[in-house]
Amino acid sequence: MSGGSDAPERDTVHVGTMALTDCASIVMAHELGFDRKYGVTIVPQRESSWANMRDKLIHGSLDMAQALYGMVYGIHLGVGTSAVDMAVLMTLNRNGQGLSLARPLAEKGATDLASLCALMRREPRAYTFAQTFPTGTHAMWLNYWLASGGIDPLTEIRSIVVPPAQMVGYVRKGSIEGFSAGEPWNHVGIMEGVSVHAAASQDVWPDHPEKVLATRGDFARRYPNTARAVIMAVLEASRWIDANAGNRMRMAATIAGSHYVNVPVDVIRERILGRYQDGLGRQWQDTRPMRFFDDGQVNFPYLSDGMWFLTQFKRWGLLRQHPDYLATARDINQIALYRQAASQLGVPAPEGDMRTSRLIDGVVWDGADPATYADGFAVQARPRRASEPAAA
Fold first, then answer.
1. Phi, psi of 89 (to 5 degrees)
2. What does the CA dihedral 44, 50, 56, 59 come to, rounded to 10 degrees?
3. Residue 152 phi/psi, 5° resolution?
4. What is the Cα 52 distance to its own chain's centre?
5. Are strands 178-182 and 211-216 parallel, antiparallel or unpaired?
6. Count of alpha carbons within 13 angstroms of residue 288, beta-carbon side
7. CA–CA separation, 310 vs 305, rounded Å?
């Protein structure tokens, strides 16, 4: 229990969640009482869209949120909204998102990136794909995936924003021909026969960061003990989820309920166990399914993870100029606060604040030279003329 000067300044924290599998660590921190153990009560509050989540977080009706990594950085820099100082407290999960294609495309032979690119070259027209938020992770996975196959996502497709829980309905109506979203909605599309699995996000970036626990910068500064207590509660829940398959099954049953994701439990359970199928008869065990802890490797808020999203903002024209990549990440990612929480729980944390990854196109990202990295892609936004407006 926390006590004395370390006691949380707030006893109740309203945390926004979405109807997604990766709300699990926040939900289980509340359902299992880990929050009360550290002197706070987490009140999960389900939101209908990422735009609603963003607005409530900015204006203070939410204290914290299960947030798209890139969305937090976009808010901080004022991309598509007024700039608001933001904070990332920890990474909630890695892997486990999906890229799905509508069944009519599959019937024409488009079942993965190579065959999709071949179809688009063979039958050039306006193809419409959906992602969940312009600066969010799913937009970045979609863009990076298509670009790795030589498709320009800014000029060769139409990209629209759809809340994750509405993706399958949009495919069924024929409004979109593919989407990038979190689970369980890719698996729902397969189970309902309207879409097929084309790729998992871990195919794009193995062990990528996904959702984060986010708050406003002023909240983290004003209530550091509260922020630390919530990190500890969610970190303990993350450890509990990944401890064994039985815990993952209990988690799936809990979040499948109407208050959280509101789907049949089997829809969540299969992919949380790494049991994948493509909707065309193939089944396999994924070696990198969604994880919430993995001995603490999931949760550390690496500076290089946040910086990567900035490089993609620059690549796709959301930023006109290169930002100060490292300084921005240091401002947002609350590494000292995370290390304090992890230390109290005995959770190991890496010595360094950067990590190295190799993405689907073979390009290595390590955070060492972000401007060169951002400018080095063959497929990226064309330079704007001086008279053209920029997003930020």
1. -90, -35
2. 140
3. -85, 115
4. 16
5. unpaired
6. 17
7. 9
User: Is residue 95 a contact partner of residue 236, using CB atoms and an 8 Å limit?
Assistant: no
Q: What is the spatial distance between Cα 105 and Cα 71, in angstroms, rounded to a whole number? A: 30
* Tokens describing residue 207: 């062990």
Longest dimension (CA), the chain: 68
Whether the per-residue pLDDT at 69 is higher than 90: the answer is yes
Coil vs helix vs strand at 256: coil
H helical segments located in 175-223: 185-191, 201-204, 217-222
Q: Where are the alpha helices (H) located in the chain, listed in sequence order?
A: 24-31, 34-37, 50-59, 69-77, 103-107, 113-122, 137-148, 167-173, 185-191, 201-204, 217-222, 224-243, 245-255, 265-272, 303-315, 325-332, 335-345, 370-375
- Strands 97-102 and 178-182, by their bridges, are antiparallel
**Amino acid in the structure at residue 355:** R
DSSP conformation letters of 47-72: -S-HHHHHHHHHHTS-SEEEEEHHHH
| Contacts of residue 314, Cβ cutoff 8 Å, sequence gap at least 6 | 321, 322, 323, 371, 374, 375
pLDDT digits (tens, 9 = 90+) for 183-217: 999 999 999 999 999 999 999 999 999 999 999 99
Parallel, antiparallel or unpaired: strands 157-161 and 127-131? parallel
- Does 77 have pLDDT greater than 90? yes
Label residue 179 left, alpha or beta by phi (over 0 means left) and psi (-120 to 50 means alpha): beta
As a whole number of angstroms, the distance between CA 133 and CA 207 comes to 21
Specify the 3-state DSSP secondary structure of 307.
helix
- Using only C-alpha atoms, the chain has a radius of gyration, in whole angstroms, of 20
Average pLDDT over residues 137-148: 98
d(CA 392, CA 389): 9
Single-letter residue type at 338: Y
- Measured in whole angstroms, the distance separating CA 369 from the mean position of its chain's CA atoms is 24
